[in-house]
Amino acid sequence: MIEQTQTAQRDALILEIAKRQFFVETLETRQRDSLDFHDVVVWAMRAALEEAVEAERASATKR
């Protein structure tokens, strides 16, 4: 149960970062190239990765 909650929290955080940095609605596959492929600028990619690393660090300090 705890693992499912942690996975759900992780997935929600990843989606939140993707929405903020890449302006996507979902990370689910929708079987359409126009919906599943996105042009991403490198600085947005870097910002998203930095957010993910910081979130992991913050999570590690709470444990």
How would you classify the helix and strand content by structural class? Answer: mainly alpha
Uncertain stretches: none
- Share of residues in helices: over 70%
Mean pLDDT: 92
3D shape = flat
Summarize the structure.
With 63 residues, this protein is mostly helical. The protein contains three helices and no strands.
Write the layout of secondary structure elements.
Blueprint: H1 2-22, H2 33-36, H3 42-62
Could you explain how this protein is built, in words?
It is a single chain. The chain is mostly helical. It has one domain. The chain has 3 helices and no strands. α1 (2-22) runs antiparallel to α3 (42-62). The protein starts with a helix and ends with a helix.
Main features:
63 residues, mainly alpha
